[in-house]
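Input record, target 12 of the design panel.
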């Protein structure tokens, strides 16, 4: 059973991070910023260590230094991931990985895929 929360140190305090509230995690300078629906937590805990302690199915990289909660993704295209009230850049490398982690359906081509997909020159998803 996966935990529903973890505690993250920030200064002299430990903050409870409810995983259902997690939007994204990013590095900035020498800090890690955890953004939730409740606010932000800035910590010196490395993003890699945080990622190792989260359920594997919870997050996916969209940039080398940015993880997003898969549950919070509203939509995405080749360049941008849309979360509630937030747009984050999506790199080409991590776009492919994101597509591998989620299930996609394309009404125009009438198919359902849960494996790696590509976007063709007309912007359509293909398996």
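The sequence produced for target 12 reads:
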């Amino acid at each position: 059973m996966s935990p529903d929360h973890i505690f993250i140190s920030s200064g002299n305090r430990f903050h409870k991070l409810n995983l259902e509230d997690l939007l994204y995690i990013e590095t900035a300078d020498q800090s890690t910023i955890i953004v939730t629906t409740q606010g932000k937590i800035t910590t010196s805990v490395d993003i890699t260590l945080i990622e190792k302690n989260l359920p594997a199915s919870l997050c996916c990289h969209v940039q080398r230094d940015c993880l997003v909660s898969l549950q919070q993704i509203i939509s995405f295209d080749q360049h941008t991931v849309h979360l509630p009230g937030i747009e984050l850049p999506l790199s080409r490398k991590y776009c492919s990985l994101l597509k591998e982690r989620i299930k996609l359906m394309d009404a125009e081509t009438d198919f359902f895929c849960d494996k790696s997909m590509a976007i063709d020159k007309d912007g359509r998803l293909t398996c």
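The two ends are 32 Å apart (CA to CA).
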